[in-house]
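Hypothesis: this fold can be encoded by more than one sequence.
Test: take the structure tokens below, design a sequence, compare later.
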């Protein structure tokens, strides 16, 4: 009945990933977030990997520092009612979160949203799709 001590709980992994995503969206280092919370950047790393569980009061403090509601950390979490009812698309969102959590993904996203012309954005998407089709699969 109890989860293994060796593998993090999927919810803890998800919440940690959302902390990392939001922190990176703000361009904040683990060290800066840790300073704001009065903890070490190593503790932030453990939260972001899901190896350490974030307590309720700490999660509230993180949400305040990162300027999001606490619910942000649980969006698309495993075991949500939508997923249980069969509406989830087998973790299809995880590749988006993984991409947006990467340096390249974050940079690309920040730049892309600054392009105001919808036709230019569409042409960029077309270009990326064309380039992806030309790349040999690894």
């Amino acid at each position: 009945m109890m989860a293994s001590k060796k593998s993090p709980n999927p919810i803890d992994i998800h919440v940690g990933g959302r902390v990392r995503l939001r922190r990176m969206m703000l361009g904040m280092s683990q060290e800066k977030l840790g300073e704001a919370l009065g903890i070490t950047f190593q503790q932030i790393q453990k939260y972001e990997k899901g190896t350490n569980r974030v307590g309720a009061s700490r999660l509230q403090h993180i949400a305040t520092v990162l300027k999001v509601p606490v619910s942000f950390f649980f969006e698309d979490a495993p075991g949500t009612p939508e997923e249980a009812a069969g509406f989830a698309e087998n973790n299809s969102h995880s590749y988006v979160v993984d991409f947006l959590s990467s340096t390249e993904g974050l940079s690309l996203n920040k730049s892309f949203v600054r392009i105001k012309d919808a036709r230019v954005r569409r042409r960029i998407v077309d270009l990326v799709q064309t380039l992806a089709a030309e790349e040999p699969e690894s």
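The chain has a mean pLDDT of 83. The radius of gyration is 18 Å.
Hypothesis status: open.
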